[in-house]
Fold this protein.
Amino acid sequence: MMARASLLLLAVTTAVLSLRLCDAHSKFAKKSNDVVNGPLLTSKIGAKRTLIVGPNDEFKTIQSAIDAVPNSNSEWVIVHLRSGVYTEKVVIPETKPFIFVRGNGKGRTSISYESASPHNTESATFAVHADNVIVFGLSFRNAAHAGLPNNPEIRTVAAMVSGDKVAFYHCAFYSPHHTLFDSAGRHYYESCYIQGNIDFIFGGGQSIFQCAEIFVKPDRRTPILGSITAQDRKEEGGAGGFVFLKGKVYGVGEVYLGRANEAYSRVVFAETYLSKTVNPAGWTDYGFSGSTQNVMLGEFNCTGPGADMSKRVPWSKRLDKAEAAKFLTVDFINGKEWLPAYY
């Protein structure tokens, strides 16, 4: 027990000492590999109860462990997943807050399920409806086959997030399209890998994607290009918006950074490496019949061949430092009030 405690203390100390910001000015912005890890988050959260999931443990499925957390829970509970692939759909209902789902790394612990539906919520492999949820070191995969090239009605969501104050650290999200349904609430994604091609980060959430790795897959719908984001901010005073800080965008084929999806859609890419995968127009209003006058789809201080703004659509925004300032820290999501770790 003493040896384990000493190792935990050493890991936490090492993580704190090795704290460094992502370098957004290198060709590929560096990820924060050892800045936030499982031991550090565990120490910050201070949970008194741990439920272990594995083939030889009390809980054989993730959902059974989630179900064992009391309704209206008010103290942090760790649901620890042994390494392996868990083939199941997992839902954290709104009645079960304060859960820390801890994997052994996104390359070693995975939740995978084949699910396609016209409804985003029904198709999701992993869904978080509760407030105050932390997830570390997991990959989420919707294993459904891609839909027909011109059938936008088929959704294959890897993860849906509708709770408030939800954070994912060092996670990965895989799907043929419509990968991450960031539905509502304040969210933080740290050093996450997100893969897809058609509106694959979408919804009305208020979210920061710090050091994200965005990989674009080929779009089988030949007449148009896919979009990374489709953000659903509907009102001028709405808090929603997606902010991508110090990450990278690359992949196969071409993609738009996002599309105008509502009258006040808001997406910002800041200090991010954009490869030639990004179409020179940058943004699109495909499928949107309203005015783009009030959308806020913009960029700040990005680098790479895809960051050339000379051919951007005229209604996109080139932000200056003052305009970008409110998007460049966790204050955008009031993160200092609830995140266990952040930059």
